[in-house]
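User: Show me an example of a complex going from sequences to structure tokens.

Assistant: Sure. Here are the input components:
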Amino acid sequence: MAKIKTPDQTSKREIIHAIAAELFREKGFRATSMRELAAKVGIEAASLYNHIEGKNELLISICFKVANNFTQKMNEVESMDSDIISKIEALIRYHVYENVYNYKDVYVSDREWRNMEDPELSKYREMRRSYRKRFTSIVEKGISRGEIKKIDANTAVMIFLNAIAAVDQWQRIVNKVSSEELENNMVTILIDGLRK
Amino acid sequence: MAKIKTPDQTSKREIIHAIAAELFREKGFRATSMRELAAKVGIEAASLYNHIEGKNELLISICFKVANNFTQKMNEVESMDSDIISKIEALIRYHVYENVYNYKDVYVSDREWRNMEDPELSKYREMRRSYRKRFTSIVEKGISRGEIKKIDANTAVMIFLNAIAAVDQWQRIVNKVSSEELENNMVTILIDGLRK
DNA sequence: CCTACCGATCGGTAGG
DNA sequence: CCTACCGATCGGTAGG
């Protein structure tokens, strides 16, 4: 039997998770206290535990939400019937999109996941490893098909994943150029390079 | 770090700083306790304070050592008498070099600097901002000279700085390809792109 | 470089 | 959702 929640409980839990993501991003998981989180929610620290299991659960929830999103996108891209460059472009655009519209969760999952403990830590590590491996396979296929230069596929994927990782800087740039413009710049620079 | 110490040469203070960088990188600044650091040094926690001022001093020292290195390199590159692409290439190669041979300090300065407090925090932020600005100016000059495509210079610099930022992944790659090979891959991908 | 110990703060619980 | 409070752990100090 599924847990029955009143609309109020569900909503408060979501509020707590959202504010937690904000604080974890700003100060880091370890540096954020449950008392601080409670204050920002507008209740006492003890009251948080009527809505959530604990501090660790908050981090776990954020990290796996993001990991599942990217895994699902990779499934889609792998089954795309298109050339390799288009697949890589689709992945780049998705990373940009997630970093713009879901940047708190993405940032926390990328920088704070080390604070999880087993078994979640191992599972998360495995998901990251798998995503990177599947991305690398796509690049390698592009090389063997002659669509892509003969570069080291691991290095290329590392550059891509890092280049698009969440940073504070992002929001400033998005305020100047649109998300679409940002995606286009990314694709141009990463796929066609800087040189004119 | 060797367990048997060669007489002096490396001061206790330097040993503590090196082990601190290692721990801050592995577990994060907040998650590293002075007791843990002391244990790895081989003394009691209280004894650390005969050699260092406190936990904050360790982080400050690491962050500014790295920041000063990059600032000095930027001074050199700006005064280079060469085309813009060569300047950007020199910066990329330096980032790769620092990330390979000084990766603990670079990683900590890049991911843990938020744990500093004013006035150091503000000073460090300003150094980062300045470095990024000078890098952007170089790219903009390249665009106006026609050496570089008309892309958004801020986005390009963000990609470059992130692409080359320290990650665990790095060491694995360096074990497979040489540092020079890694530099060459980086330069190729970032300057000339992926497409054949 | 140690033993002994401090005040502060942490995540979380009991009980209403 | 609150007050009251727990044991654990933190960075750091006193004094030898």
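The lines above are the inputs; the final block is the predicted structure for all four components together. Confidence is low (pLDDT under 50) at residues 1-5 of chain A.
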